[in-house]
Amino acid sequence: MKFSGIYALAVLAGLSAAQTPDGFEPQVTPHLDVIFGSKEVTPGMSLTKSARAPTIGLKAQPNGTYVWMMIGRSTNPFNPKQGKPATYLHTVLRDFKASGQKTDSGVYTLTTRATGPVAWRRLLRRRIPPHPHRYTHLLWEQPENWVIPQAAQTQLQTGKTAFNVPAFQKAAGLSAPIAGNYFNQTG
Question: Is 37 exposed, middle or buried (0-12, 13-18, 19+ CB in 10 A)?
Fold first, then answer.
């Protein structure tokens, strides 16, 4: 009986754990399913590079329209202890909707035909010297008839190497992200 109570607490703690890295803003608790080929990303796992965009989805039946972002974050490869990590914008795609398909693991996949506002950019190639890079995925509900305000468009065009997610979220008129996930890559 005591074991069951401890197990239940561990399960609940795992369910409420952040799906975004420590220190990342905004912190997101709900899980975004991110699948590269046949590999389902669990928060913080190590993954090799991929040229293809992942499949994204939710365990709960999605019924809206969504915006997905993937950003990369890494430290100075020549002196990792120096300064804060830099944030790089990889992609922002809009108009994701439920595809009508469900994976074997129960994920309702989301798809889009949109190629922007920031087209998919594959994961970085081998970096010299090798250093850790973290990719964070965020999913927002897309407001009805959403038009990206000029301030947010400017951030997307000019802020790719020092991207500020909370500033973009505010400028774009987006509420808090509804789901997130991240993985690590070294190379």
Answer: exposed
Q: Angle of helix 165-172 relative to helix 150-158, nearest 10 degrees?
A: 150
Beta bridge partners of 135: 72, 183
Neighbours of 25 (CB within 10 A): 10
How many other CB atoms are there within 10 angstroms of residue 121's CB atom?
A: 14
Q: How many CB atoms lie within 10 A of CB 32?
A: 28
* Residue whose C-alpha is closest to residue 96's, from 127, 130, 45, 55: 55
Q: Map residue 83 onto helix, strand or coil.
A: coil
**pLDDT given at position 129:** 57
Return d(Cα 150, Cα 93) in angstroms, integer: 17
Instruction: Tell me the C-alpha to C-alpha distance, in Å, between residue 68 and each of 123, 136, 137, 165.
Output: 16, 11, 7, 12
According to DSSP, the residues that pair with 74 across neighbouring strands are 86, 133
- The pTM assigned to this predicted structure is 0.84
- Determine the residue type at 187: G
Q: How confident is the model at residue 12 (pLDDT cuts 50, 70, 90)?
A: very low
| CATH number, domain containing residue 17 | 3.90.280.10
Which pair of tokens denotes residue 75? 């430290």
Q: How many domains does the chain have?
A: 1
DSSP secondary structure letter of residue 28: -
CA distance linking residue 110 with residue 65, whole number of Å: 9
